[in-house]
Amino acid sequence: MAQLGSFSVSSGFSATQTITDNRNLSAIDRQADAVTILTPSVRINSRAGRVQGSLDYALSGLYFARSPSRFQLQNALNALVSAEVIPGYAFIDARASISQQSISALDLQGARPSSINPNSTEVRTFSLSPRFQGGRGRGLSYEIGGFRFDADFETSLSSSGSISSGGNGGNGGNGGSTDSRTAFSYNGGLRVSTSLARDLSGAVELNRNVSDFNGGRKTTQDVLRATLNYRPQSDLRLFVSAGKERNDVQTNDQRVSDTWGGGADWQPTARTRLSAKYEHRYFGTSHTVSLSHRLRRSIISFTDSRSSTETTVGAGQTLSIYELYFQQFASLEPNPALRDVLVRNFLLAAGLNPNQRITAGFINRALSLQHSQNLSYALQGLRSNFVLSTFRTNSRRLDTISTAQDDLSRVDALRQHGYVVSWSYRLTPASSLVVTAAEQITPGRGAVAGNGLKSLNVSWGEQISSRASLSVTARHAQADGARPYTESAVTASLGIRF
């Protein structure tokens, strides 16, 4: 590892061998196989200065002993960078990720590359957001009726996208992707805020969002909104908003409608935070409720949201253990770069896999409306850690004019629910035992059958030296519904850091 002050670069390599009794995840075509995975990786981290963030990238080569032609490469990326280009004025936020995901929630479920599971795809998402702002004394100053006002302003322009490589190809030896689904979103806005009195402030914002789905439609949404904030106490903020919005999501031409709402943010202590927001939108009601409470060794978090997925493929976006804790630790460490280090150190100490997905997912090709709920609890003991996360989602297509084909064109509403529970115990200062159970259920709808997937993993890991680690995992999975199967497997992995 190379380190210069708060900037560091490290690399690693892992070799993994898996013996499975059902490579194809099939009830009728069961084939035992040995899967070898070789993975070089690199991690870059900056925790101070004008550029802060982290980048984790790994490239895995998967080799199947009984089917060498199905060799496949898989990418994994998680990057978050914030840069202060002009101190106090101009900033750039960038995010990128590459992960594996199911194309459809109604088809075969299971962790397999697309050369084995045609319902699996590699999803690449990215966003770039430059921001310009002016603080007090550098923003806008004006006088009305002898009263002087100082206003802050912020302008932003963001671009985000998602590209997925369809099944039966991927990056492997079958000639590349046979089905590419892309979605891009462009968002720009201007926000001007001012202090009206000691406890009263206001803001006016103008925002435009353009979403463009390949195989679907391009839609434009404009929102003009005014917000009034009131702080009766230092730990409580109340706000109301009203405005106009214009879009062509549900019609072929632009339609104008009213939007209004309100909410509150309450943080009575540094460990407890409650926020609630309600808004009347063109599609009905939108809301977000978030509650988090942190004790000395535990944290509980609950979120309930109903909103439109106005960017990329949000309706099917999955959530990893890392992303869950990154959100939950926001009240502990607001700085994203420092929070990244905090989360990774916590997961390492708990023996948890940061890349493990805890919610189901699918890829949508039109704007949709999603109601999601998530309840998570984490307990850190002296030698043991416990994590429980439950989720429930209900998605339906919002852009009913679009003729794009996906899960939400097959059913009028797609519901999913499930849980992940993980317990880890530190056997010695260098070794730990981790048991993880998970279940995800997608009920059928009408003539379309649903499915369910249960899995149990038992893993032992040991830090055999300061730079090397060894782990052995036994897993069992059982799927029912439209594509039933059972699978048992044993995996051994050796990792080295340089």
Low-confidence stretches: 167-178, 311-317
Largest sheet: 22 strands, antiparallel, barrel
How many structural domains does the protein architecture include? Answer: 1
The Rg value, from CA coordinates, equals 24 Å
Describe it:
- The protein is mainly beta.
- It has one domain: Maltoporin, Chain A (Beta Barrel), CATH 2.40.170.
- The chain has three helices and 24 strands.
- It has a 22-stranded antiparallel β-barrel.
- A hairpin with a 7-residue loop joins strand 13 and strand 14.
- The chain is globular, with a radius of gyration of 24 Å.
- The chain starts with a strand and ends with a strand.
- The model is unreliable at 167-178 and 311-317 (pLDDT under 50).
Produce the secondary structure layout.
Elements (H helix, E strand, L loop, with lengths): L1 E3 L2 E14 L12 E14 L4 E14 L7 E15 L3 E13 L17 E15 L5 E5 L2 E19 L14 E16 L4 E14 L4 E16 L2 E12 L7 E15 L2 E10 L2 E11 L3 E12 L11 H8 L7 H15 L17 E13 L3 E14 L9 H4 L3 E15 L2 E12 L8 E13 L4 E14 L3 E13 L1
Antiparallel strand pairs: 1-2, 2-3, 2-24, 3-4, 4-5, 5-6, 6-7, 7-9, 8-9, 9-10, 10-11, 11-12, 12-13, 13-14, 14-15, 15-16, 16-17, 17-18, 18-19, 19-20, 20-21, 21-22, 22-23, 23-24
In short:
By secondary structure, this protein is mostly beta strands. It contains 3 helices and 24 strands.
Observed structural traits:
single chain, 498 residues, mainly beta, Maltoporin, Chain A, 22-stranded antiparallel β-barrel, 3 helices
